[in-house]
Amino acid sequence: MLHISKTSVKTTTTDNTYESSQQTSTINTEISTVTREKQQVLHANTLETPIEWEQILDREFQSIDIDADGYISVSDMQSVLKNFSHIYNSNELILRIFEELDLNHDQRISKQEFKLYKNILLDREKRFHRSTFEEKFDSIFILFDRNQDNYISRHEIRETMHNLGEYIDDNLLEEMMQTADINHDDRISREEFKKLLLQLYSNKTK
């Protein structure tokens, strides 16, 4: 008969917990390093240097490819993103991000797919920063106006925030509606939404 002491089980459990904690800490450290390096490159305006940008993408890919098999799986992404930020606590959001990166739909993300997607995002980010206020406003309004009726409802705000991985409570939602819905028709028009954004921007720059 095999005898396993309680002390042995406790020690094994403690070791496994410690190892898991160490792995999580390592993942978070790697991602923080990649993020910091990317910010430094952005700040220094050296994104035109392909080698530096490629190195950042390589490190970012490696930090997500936990089993180092050259591909990012759904479980890889879930493990890393959930440890990285509360924003990614939604499996639905993580799966949607995964599907966007998985360009050939083979249920895994290659380094080539990862780099292509990141470069697309970078290009969008550059174009957004170069765009006028009207162009920025249109992009944000379209994001919330899910049924494209030129109005934003309570449901659309809640749904959009949920898809972005953010929870908005009833009090904050009601406060937002009362502030933006100037004519009290229980929906936010394009003009009302624009005034809200201008007000938020004005408060931010004070």
Automatic annotation (TrEMBL):
Pfam families: EF-hand_7. PROSITE patterns: EF_HAND_1, EF_HAND_2. Residues 15-24 have a biased composition (Polar residues). CDD domains: EFh. Residues 1-14 have a biased composition (Low complexity). Keywords: Calcium, Repeat. SMART domains: EFh (SM00054). It comes from the Eukaryota. Residues 1-24 are annotated as: Disordered. One of its GO terms (molecular function) is calcium ion binding. InterPro entries: Centrin_CML-like, EF-hand-dom_pair, EF_Hand_1_Ca_BS, EF_hand_dom. Residues 52-87, 89-124, 132-167, 168-203 form the EF-hand domain. Coiled coil: none annotated. This is EF-hand domain-containing protein. It comes from Adineta steineri. The lineage of its organism: Eukaryota, Metazoa, Spiralia, Gnathifera, Rotifera.
